[in-house]
Structures are given as C-alpha cells and as structure tokens.
C-alpha cells in the first residue's frame, strides 16, 4: 500500500487516479510525474527537476489520458479524481522514445558527462541523463537522423570555474530556471527564435565576461553536460559520495563531497533544510583548499635563536628558515610544557586561548573546557567577539536568548523583509536567494545600508543612510510608530517591559529632526515605519554592519524595540535574525567559547551556574569573567607588575594577526608572548609568530557537528584523511590537556567525538537534550531548542513567552553615540571593512582555492566614481589608504554604490591588510571593535605587493613548496 504515512502528508487533501492500471494516491495539485515517482514508477523526463517549476518543454514525459486526444506532459499535468493515465501505452512510449532519439541524434560524437572509466562505458553513456534514459528505453539513433545534426558549436571556456558546451545543449531550460528562478541572478537566458534559439549569458557575452557569480546552480541542473565544472569534463565516476555540511558561512548548506583517488573532485548541493540543493561559489568550487600544497603536514618548532618579530610578516619570510620539523611527541611536550611552565610560575591568569568558529561544536566545547579547567581562567574567546558580540549582548538582555527567533527561509511567509547592515549576496549568498525569491512573489524588501549593494535591485525601498547613524534612523522609525499610534498595544501590555521609558526617550527623535543626521528623508522614514508596523509579517535580518560599532549593542536594541512595539515577533515571517558569519560561530558561542559565559550562555559569575559546572567538571573554576579578544592583546603588552598580564596563548584555528583591529599592535602583542602555540591547517600570519605549530585537520577531514545561523545542529562527516602527519583537532586539544595535567578519557572513534558531544549536550542544560548523536547520524540536521527525542525542534521561538526571567521582552532605549573617530580635515574619508563573495574571513582557506583566487586574485578598495575623479585616479590605479594606525597600498575599484566620502576594503588580503588601518575602540557592552568606521586619508600612488596571493614567498610558503 502506497498511502501517505507522514502526519504532515495526511493533512493534505488527496486524490486517487489510475496509472497503468494501478491505483495511485496523489496530493491535491501534485503532478502525475511526481506522484508516479513517489510510488516508485519512473516516467522519462529531462526538463523536469525536483524543486524547480515544471516547464514541460522537452516532452519526454508525455502520457496518454483516457478521453483526451493529445498526449499530456506529466511534469505539468496535475492528477484529478478518477483520471486514468497510461505512461507505458504503445502511443505514449513511441512518443517518449521519439523525443529521446531526436535529442540524442543532435548530440556530439564525444560527450562531456558520463559515468564510467572505460571507453566502452563512455560510448554507452556519454550524455548524462539523456543517455541514461535512452539506454533504459532501448533507444538507438537512426543514421538518417544523425546526418541532420546541427553544426558543431565551439566550447566556451572563458570562465575560471565552468565550461559551456552548447553542442550538448537540449534547451531543456533547466539552467535558465536555475539562474532566474532559484538563485535569481538573471544571467542565463534565451536569444534568437525557433531553430536558431540558444542559451546566452547576459547579452550573448562569453560566460567569463558575464555577470555570472559562479554559484554553479546551472551546472548542477544541466542534464547533459552542456554546462560542466571546468575541471570535471568527462567521467563522473567517483569512489564514494560523502554527505556533510559546508564549512564556509553560517547558512549551513548541506553538501555532498564527490571523492576520487582520495581527493574531493567536486561538490554538489544537497536537499538540506537551509539550502534545498542550492550552493554559492565557495561551497561548490572552493573546497580544493584542502589539497593545496601549502597544507601543514608535520609539527613545527621554532628554531633556536630565531626571534619573534612582527616585521617578519612584512618581509614574507620563508617559514622553513623559522621552524624545524618535529615529532608529535616532541612538539606536544614543548607546546603543552611551555604553557604549564608559565602557569606554574605566574599563576592561572597568565594564559589565554582563542578557539575557532571554523571547527566543530565538540572542538569548541573541549577547547573552552581546557582553558577553564586546565589554564585556570576564563580567558577564552573566538571570532564571535569580532562579528556579532554586540548583537548577542542586546539579545540576551532583551529577549533572553543569543540566537535567532526565526529561520532564514521563513521569509517565504514575510510580507516585509527588513535588511540592515548586511550584504547577503556576498556574505550569505544562499540566504540571499530566499530574499530574492520572496521579492518575486511580492514581499517588500527594505535595504538599509551605507552602501548600495546588489540586493537593492530587488528592494522596495533602499535607505542608504550615512555611516554611523543607525540609531538616529531606527529611532526615527520607532518615533513614527509610537506617535502615529501604530503600536501593538496588546503585545506591549502583555509581553513587554519598559515601554514607558522607551516612549519618553524617543521624544527627541522625530523623522524631521533625524533626516539631516542620517541622510534619509523624513517622508521615507515615516513611509517605511508605517509599512513595517501595519504589514502582516515583517522580519528583521542584520549583519555586521549593525554590530561592528561602538554603538553596536544600541543598534541591536533599536531592532529589538522595533519588532516588539509592533508585535512582529513570535509568528511566521517575523522576528529577529542576526545573520551569523562563520559556519559554526553560533555553535561555538553556544558551547561556551566566550569569556563571560559557560555553555548555553550561563554567566561564569552566576553562583548557581558556577557551582553546577564546578561539580560537572569536578574542578575549581575562576569566578571572574575573562578577557575578550582585543582586551587579551592589551593584556599581553601590560607591564610585568600587572597580575593579569598574559604571557602564553593557545590559538586553535584563528588568525588574529589578520582579523584583529589595529594589526600593528595585535602583531606586536603576539610576537611579545613568551609562549605561543598555534594549531592550524596552514602557516597563517599568526602561526609565523608561534613557538610551536601543530598541523590540524580541515573540515572535510573529520567528524563533528556545527550549528548554523538557523539554530540547526548539523552533522559533518569525514570524506578523506588529513595529509601527512596532520591530526584531528579534537585529538590535539586532548593531548594538550593531558600535558596540562588533566585526566580526560574520551572513548570511541574519531577521538571520542560522540562522547564529547554527549557531555556538551548535558552542559547545554536541555537546549539540545533531544538531539542525540544517534539522531543526528540518521537525520543530519535538527533544530534547537529540542527538549526530547520526539521533539522535532522549534524553528520559531518566542511564540508565547521570551527566555527572560519574567518571560517578557525588555525594551532598552538607545541614544546616539558617535563613532570613536570621526573624519576631519586631515583624515576626511570613512573606511568600512568587510567580506566579499569569493573570499572568506582572513583568506587563509579561500585564497588557496584555485577558482576563488582566479576570480578575485588581488585586494581592491571600492570608491565612488566622483571621488576617483577628484583624486585623479582610474580603476586599477594604486592609492595609499592611511589612518592614524597604519597604511596600505591598494588598487582602486570603481563602485558607485559606495557613497562619496566612504571607501570599502575587504580584510581577506595579507598584501593589503585592511586591519592595519582599523580602530580597536570597543562597544562597552559587547566588547566588539569598531571595524565599520574609522577616519582615513587617501593619496594617489603607493607601494603594492609584488606577489599577489599565496605564492612561494608569501606567508605560508616555504622553499620546499617551490618544487611541489
């Protein structure tokens, strides 16, 4: 019996019809093809792809319907009660085979896509899905049809990632739908008519010259090999497929690694809850960083007599002049022994640790446990301090939880999407597809950003406000909503606190008063505020443009107030969503990799939490919150008389010598440490300053979980082994713990990862209680909070109460706090830093990925065209950008979306390290640096690096590598 059994399916209306004499149960509106497929009956199809809008243009799936004269495409036709369908009647099969034969007759003699390694297999199965269906239907091409084949079309190999082989195109339209309807990039289309029609990119440009963003959705959609990964034309045979989750951004796309000869040869999108098969250029084409010859493969110890000096980062020294290879035993003894010696000599406060948001939850949990129980302090932090620390501070204060209220793709239920301080097409590309999909169905996107970014093309309103004026703009909206009586009175009365204080504070923030400050007209401020308050469902999503300010916490407080006074939270399509940056920054924070919180955000200075963890870990713990990332750098350079002076550090998978603000100071501090241990996969800028470097495993080389921006705990699986003598991070952490005197004994495969996870699950105090290791192995992804094995998880929270003590949201008024450093006559420009589509964070991974580095090989500064004219420069010219802390020489890129008086530099390039310029001023609550605002001056000309990227003489290179 093929009746539906899923409870959700039972809620749908069903119809019964006959297919080849068999009774089929179909859902209302379901097509014949999908119903047949669900019942295990295959009907030939080529233009149909699960998840895409059916197009019905190939006609390979036609069926015969009783009472109808013409054959019907089963991919488009919905079943009706009592309908009698024949997919294998003589007439239907004859038509299906004719379509396949005609398409096959037009294929090139040598195909581009097949499964098999032998010449015979190639000949039998040259053209992907078309050949597969032809073989199943026993279709052979008549010679007279082959003679009519169209003229050969030249291949287009102009793109670094993909090859275009229109000789194999059957015009199924899957690539067009992939580009225009799924990813909504609007690059691929049709040109000409009839027999002359063809697939084109933009205005018939070569693919490499088009506006293609290399998401590769078209490649995954193409059934015949007309669009292919450039390095994978030919046999698609692999040794194994391994399901996992992407290691780049916080969206948490599920992927499949294709492994051949112990190398990941390609990556496919999987139908995971966050991405539904979609990927971006990094996830699809950026995984070969793990095979880069600069991978660390042996433990390294600094050579005797080689001093640590931050100037070595400028000279790009060969690391083989600095380090010698060692055995694991020796390296671990030197690493752990050096840390323990400092602790024994100076006490518990002298050590600190930076963990990683690129690793697993288990690694994050064990690393913070090592620092707290082994080092004896709470001096542990990671890159959350540099991205959303202020957002988390405001959320914990206001709603009692540091995570999102609704998941990204819940925007499908939104009538308004309020995007602020986020460039999602660059930083969260797959999330951006859901926003663009929503806009196409009628949702209103409001983009608030000092820079006019790509998503503005899909926006209902773009509010390009002046940098540093977030509070002025948001308070003006709150003023309008309160003044015009648009608040949700019932929500305020029943579910909020402190509204009167907010109302009083907002009196001086009318749109008319704020318009000159923020640069948005009073009319627009009022219009957007009214729409937000009165629309059915409005969701706020924000990025680091909100958080990376000295007033970042206040910015987030305004967003909390905005959704609360309008009741736009706790229901579908509404709520608060800080778009998390790294793949596991949410999970690492949840696991306690922060200086003031134990796992699950339990404060270390809370007596009850402190007592619980002392008992749980059976170790005395420090009651004082530790120092944050930037504070630790200051404590390293503190005088010897300071009892909290930090003298030794363990850095696991972080690169503060590139990611910290005011890099000259940060690098000086790292070089000043008496003992620095770095655990990483490459010789990063930070590793060059280390005493011991421990070679670790990349994400595809280990087993572990990661928690994405949607609160989904997801399973990452091992595809290949680490290179050489590199080891899993979890194993290394445990070995350092052993040498710190800790008696851990985690059992099981992969360094006891399942046992570590189970301990973390207990430490999380119920939040992930229902998400067992065994459940994740079966389901791959489960959303928290999840309180029991039967609990499916809660995608939407705050439906009836908040996680605060009284269950109410706390409204916290915010006032205008100016940036720490304003432009003046000497430094008249504002610098904004951030990421770009192709390169992630400090670039240590993505700049070693072949395709990504080919697309964006060098650092550029984005400038408005009018500013370029005034400075007398053109695109590609070199300028010098200087602040009060440092300077870089860099090439100019014209970007009229960047306003006059503002420049933008991505911080992924060591040759032009943006953080040499940035300001280390901190938000007083979240302790996040002000990456999004500092004063700079520009000068025509300057010095740029002679070598771009990670060549032999770059950080991470060695003499040995020159022969690889």
TrEMBL record:
Q: What is its EC number?
A: 1.17.1.9
- A Pfam family matched by this chain, by name? Fer2_4
Q: Name one GO cellular component term.
A: membrane
What Gene Ontology terms for biological process does this UniProt record contain? formate metabolic process; respiratory electron transport chain
Protein origin, superkingdom? Bacteria
Q: Which NCBIfam families match?
A: Fdh-alpha
Q: Which family does it belong to?
A: In the C-terminal section; belongs to the prokaryotic molybdopterin-containing oxidoreductase family.
Q: What is this protein called?
A: Formate dehydrogenase major subunit
- Organism, by scientific name, is Polynucleobacter sphagniphilus
């Amino acid at each position: 019996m093929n009746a539906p059994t899923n409870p959700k399916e039972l809620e749908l209306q069903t119809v019964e019809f006959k297919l080849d004499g068999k009774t089929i149960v179909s859902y209302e509106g379901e097509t014949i093809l999908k119903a047949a497929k669900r019942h295990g009956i295959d009907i030939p199809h080529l233009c149909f792809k699960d998840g895409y809008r059916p197009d019905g243009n190939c006609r390979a799936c036609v069926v015969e319907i009783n009472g109808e004269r013409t054959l019907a495409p089963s991919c488009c036709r919905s079943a009706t009660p009592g309908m009698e369908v024949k997919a294998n009647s003589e007439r239907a099969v004859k038509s299906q085979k004719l379509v396949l034969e005609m398409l096959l007759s037009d294929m090139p003699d040598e195909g581009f896509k097949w499964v098999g390694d032998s010449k015979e297999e190639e000949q039998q199965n040259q053209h992907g899905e078309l050949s597969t269906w032809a073989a199943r239907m026993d279709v052979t091409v008549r010679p007279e049809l082959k003679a009519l084949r169209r003229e050969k079309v030249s291949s287009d190999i102009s793109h670094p990632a993909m090859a275009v082989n229109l000789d194999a195109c059957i015009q199924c339209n899957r690539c067009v739908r992939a580009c225009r309807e799924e990813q909504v990039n609007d690059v691929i289309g049709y040109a000409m008519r009839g027999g002359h029609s063809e697939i084109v990119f933009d205005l018939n440009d070569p693919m490499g010259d088009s506006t293609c963003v290399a998401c590769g959705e078209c490649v995954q959609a193409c059934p015949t090999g007309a669009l292919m990964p450039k390095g994978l034309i030919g046999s698609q045979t692999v040794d194994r497929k391994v399901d996992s989750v992407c290691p780049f951004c916080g969206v948490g796309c599920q992927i499949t690694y294709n492994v051949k000869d112990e190398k990941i040869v390609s990556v496919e999108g999987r139908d995971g809850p966050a991405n539904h098969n979609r990927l971006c250029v990094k996830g699809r084409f950026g995984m070969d960083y793990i095979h880069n010859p600069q991978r660390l493969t042996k433990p390294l110890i600094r050579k005797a007599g080689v001093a640590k000096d931050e100037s070595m980062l400028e000279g790009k020294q060969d690391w083989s002049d600095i380090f010698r290879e060692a055995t694991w035993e020796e390296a671990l003894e030197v690493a752990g022994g050096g840390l323990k010696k400092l602790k024994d000599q100076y006490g518990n406060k002298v050590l600190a640790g930076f963990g990683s948001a690129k690793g697993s939850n288990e690694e994050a949990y064990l690393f913070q446990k090592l620092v707290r129980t082994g080092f004896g302090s709470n001096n542990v932090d990671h890159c959350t301090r540099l991205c959303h620390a202020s957002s988390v501070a405001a959320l914990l204060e206001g709603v009692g939880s540091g995570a999102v209220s609704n998941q990204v793709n819940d925007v499908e239920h939104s009538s308004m999407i309020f995007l602020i301080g986020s460039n999602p097409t660059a930083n969260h590309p797959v999330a951006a597809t859901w926003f663009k999909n929503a806009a196409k169905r009628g949702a209103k996107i409001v983009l608030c950003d000092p820079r006019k970014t790509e998503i503005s093309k899909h926006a209902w309103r773009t509010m390009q406000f002046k940098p540093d004026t977030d509070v002025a703009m948001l308070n003006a909206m709150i003023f309008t909503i309160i003044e015009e009586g648009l608040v949700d009175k019932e929500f305020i009365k029943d579910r909020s606190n402190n509204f009167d204080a907010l109302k009083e504070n907002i009196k001086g923030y009318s749109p008319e008063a704020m318009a000159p400050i923020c640069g948005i007209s009073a009319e627009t401020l009022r219009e957007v505020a009214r729409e937000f308050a009165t629309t059915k469902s409005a969701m706020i999503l924000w990025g680091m443009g909100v958080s990376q300010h000295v007033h970042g916490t206040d910015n987030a407080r305004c967003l909390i107030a905005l959704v609360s006074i309008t009741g736009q939270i706790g229901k579908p399509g509404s709520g608060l969503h800080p778009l998390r940056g790294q793949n596991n920054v949410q999970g690492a924070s949840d696991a306690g990799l922060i200086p003031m919180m134990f796992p699950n955000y339990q404060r270390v200075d809370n007596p009850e939490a402190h007592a619980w963890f002392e008992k749980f870990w059976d170790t005395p713990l420090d009651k004082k919150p530790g120092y944050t990332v930037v504070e630790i750098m200051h404590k390293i350079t503190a005088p010897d008389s300071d009892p909290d002076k930090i003298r030794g550090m363990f850095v696991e998978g972080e690169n503060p010598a590139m990611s910290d603000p005011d890099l000259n100071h940060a690098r000086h501090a790292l070089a000043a440490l008496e003992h620095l241990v770095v655990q990483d996969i490459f010789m990063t800028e930070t590793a060059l300053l280390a005493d011991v470097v421990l070679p670790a495993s990349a994400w595809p080389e280990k087993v572990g979980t990661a928690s994405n921006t949607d609160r989904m705990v997801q399973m990452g699986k091992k595809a290949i082994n680490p290179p050489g003598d590199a080891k899993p991070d979890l194993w290394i952490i445990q070995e350092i713990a052993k040498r710190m005197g800790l008696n851990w004994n985690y059992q099981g495969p992969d360094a006891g990862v399942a046992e570590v996870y189970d301990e973390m699950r207990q430490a999380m105090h119920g939040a992930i209680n229902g998400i067992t290791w065994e459940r994740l192995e079966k389901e791959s992804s489960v959303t928290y909070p999840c309180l029991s094995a039967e609990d499916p998880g809660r995608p939407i929270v705050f439906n009836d109460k908040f996680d605060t003590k009284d269950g109410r949201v706390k409204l916290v008024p915010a006032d205008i706090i100016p940036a720490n450093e304003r432009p003046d006559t000497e430094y008249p420009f504002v610098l904004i830093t951030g990421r770009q589509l192709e390169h992630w964070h400090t670039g240590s991974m993505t700049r070693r990925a072949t395709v990504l580095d080919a697309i964006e090989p060098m650092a550029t500064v984005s400038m408005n065209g009018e500013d370029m004219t005034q400075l007398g420069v053109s695109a590609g010219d070199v300028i010098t950008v200087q602040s009060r802390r440092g300077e870089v020489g860099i090439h100019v890129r014209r970007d009229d979306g960047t306003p006059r008086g503002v420049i933008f530099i991505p911080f992924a390039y060591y040759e032009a390290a943006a953080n040499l310029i940035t300001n280390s001023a901190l938000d007083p609550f979240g302790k996040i640096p002000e990456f999004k605002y500092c004063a700079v001056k520009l000068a025509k000309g300057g010095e740029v690096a002679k070598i771009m990227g990670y060549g032999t003489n770059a950080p991470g290179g060695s003499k040995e590598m020159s022969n690889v």
